[in-house]
C-alpha cells in the first residue's frame, strides 16, 4: 500500500500502554526506579479503566488497570497477563486516519472517532489489521 498523497497520517508516538493489575504499584515502580512522576491520572468510565500517564519526552507511558470486570483490559489481563497492551499514535485528524484504515481494508474496533482521555479524540484499529498490535489513533 502506498502512503496517502497528503503525507504520513501518523505524526508522533503519543503513548505506549501497559496493562497492570495494581496501578499504584506500577506508578511506584516507575517513580522509585526511574524518578518518573505522573503527569495525568484519570478514570475513563466508558472504557472501564483507570490510567496514569508518565511523561517521557513528548510521549507518555500509559499505565492502565481495569475498573470493571468486563472491560477489555480486564479480559486482556486474564488472557495474557500484565504487559504491553497497545501503541497510541498521534494524528492530525482521527476521522481521516480511521477512514484510511477502512479504505485499505483494515479492521477497526471503533467505526467512528470517540472521546478519549485528556480531552482527546480516539479510535482503535484491530490488531488483525496491524500485524498483531492494537493501535490507538489519538487526536489532541
Description:
With 140 residues, the chain is of the alpha+beta class. The protein has one domain: 2,3-Dihydroxybiphenyl 1,2-Dioxygenase, domain 1, CATH 3.10.180. The chain is 22% helix and 39% strand. The chain has three helices and eight strands. The chain has helices at 23-34, 72-80, 94-103, and strands at 10-19, 38-44, 49-56, 59-66, 83-91, 114-115, 121-125, 135-139. It has an eight-stranded mixed β-sheet with strand order 2-3-4-1-5-8-7-6.
Principal-axes geometry comes out as: globular
CATH architecture: Roll
Strand percentage lies at 35-45%
Number of strands: 8
What is the helical fraction, as a range of percent? 10-25%
What is the CATH class name?
A: Alpha Beta
Number of helical stretches of at least 4 residues: 3
Unreliable stretches covering 5 or more consecutive residues: none
In terms of structural class, how would the helical and strand content be classed? alpha+beta
With strands numbered from the N-terminus, the spatial order across the biggest sheet is: 2-3-4-1-5-8-7-6
In whole angstroms, how far apart are the ends?
27 Å
Q: Sheet with the most strands? A: 8 strands, mixed
Q: What would the CATH topology be?
A: 2,3-Dihydroxybiphenyl 1,2-Dioxygenase, domain 1
The CATH homologous superfamily corresponds to: 2,3-Dihydroxybiphenyl 1,2-Dioxygenase, domain 1
The average pLDDT is: 95
State the order of secondary-structure elements, H for helix, E for strand.
EHEEEHEHEEE
Gyration radius, to the nearest Å?
15 Å
Domains (count): 1
Amino acid at each position: 500500500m502506498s502512503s496517502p498523497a497528503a503525507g504520513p497520517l501518523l505524526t508522533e508516538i503519543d503513548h505506549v500502554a501497559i496493562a497492570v493489575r495494581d496501578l499504584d504499584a506500577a506508578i511506584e515502580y516507575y517513580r522509585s526506579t526511574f524518578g518518573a512522576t505522573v503527569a495525568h491520572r484519570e478514570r475513563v468510565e466508558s472504557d472501564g479503566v483507570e490510567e496514569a500517564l508518565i511523561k517521557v519526552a513528548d510521549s507518555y507511558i500509559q499505565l492502565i488497570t481495569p475498573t470493571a470486570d468486563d472491560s477489555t483490559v480486564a479480559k486482556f489481563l486474564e488472557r495474557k497477563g500484565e504487559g504491553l497492551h497497545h501503541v497510541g499514535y498521534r494524528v492530525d485528524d482521527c476521522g481521516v486516519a480511521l477512514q484510511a484504515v477502512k479504505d485499505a481494508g483494515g479492521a477497526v474496533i471503533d467505526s467512528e472517532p470517540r472521546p478519549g482521555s485528556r480531552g482527546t479524540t480516539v479510535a482503535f484499529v484491530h490488531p488483525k489489521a496491524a500485524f498483531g498490535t492494537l493501535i490507538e489513533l489519538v487526536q489532541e
